[in-house]
Amino acid sequence: MLVREELEQHEIASLSPYAACAARSKGRARSEEECDIRTCFMRDRDRIVHSKSFRRLKDKTQVFLSPKGDHYRTRLMHTLEVSQTSRTVARCLKLNEDLVEAIALGHDLGHTPFGHAGERALNEVCALGFKHYEQSVRVAQVLEKDGKGLNLTSEVLDGMLNHGTAKHPSTLEGQIVRLCDKISYVHHDMDDAERAGILKETDIPRHLRELLGYSTRERLNTFIHDIVRSSAGQPEVTMSREIGEGLKELRAFLFENLYTNPDAKSEEKMAVAMLTALYEHYILHPEEMAEEYYDMIARCADSNERVVCDYISGMTDAYSKMKFEEIYVPKAWSR
Prior knowledge:
By secondary structure, the chain is an all-alpha fold. The chain has helices at residues 3-14, 40-49, 52-56, 75-93, 97-106, 115-125, 132-143, 154-161, 172-196, 206-212, 216-231, 241-259, 268-284, 291-299, 304-313, 317-328. Helix 13 crosses helix 16 (317-328) and helix 14 (291-299) packs antiparallel against helix 15.
């Protein structure tokens, strides 16, 4: 028996009856010969980790634009923390860790430079709209590997597409990532805000600290334990009503005091203006985009608007700044 087949049989025998097992996957858009040692979800995880879009996450903003310090989270660090937290929950619930890891590692592949400010900029300027979770799927299936795509399984794509607050993943593994995405950014964004001097622990309402914990570490522990206790042996991944409401209230506190805080977000207007200007320039001059993107307009019959969003959303913070300066900042005269 092949190693992969042994792993598939082990999943069926040992995981929860509610788990998504690799042997029962809905498969890929393009059929492929199976690997002899890795399950389909393991292959998806590896494809994501080795992709160019995954590597670029290390130079994309999480919350703080151009922070002065080495310990603030980037989009890559957020992704890794979501992955680790999700795997812990999956193991405790006897769900598929490989599927959870692949979804978590891929869920933000389509995120813009400058975090959600960049996402809002493209969504406002592009008539077609822009959502990072939709772009993550497009990156994986259309843009990676010079237009060949990663050809991920249906279950991984579903989890990536449906990790947002109002979304409903079809697998319990996707439901884990959806919850762990929230608790991860609530955890690490508060930690970064304290490091930056934007917020103090005592700024959090007292009743929330009494309910959830008196530090970021304690609150993360509370959330993970609550998910495991509330979801064990159940056909859905959920939180208790009390802790779920506490998480919702803590997110609202951060939106009011951090995500819209003028000290933390002082450069967002400049980032939005810069990406808007880049979009408007490339709409008029698509031939100035990287060749692989310009070729897509004719090769894939995609609209200029969509491909320009592809190009800009794939940029890192630093690269978008460089392109803006190339186009808009006057250069010194030379003799």
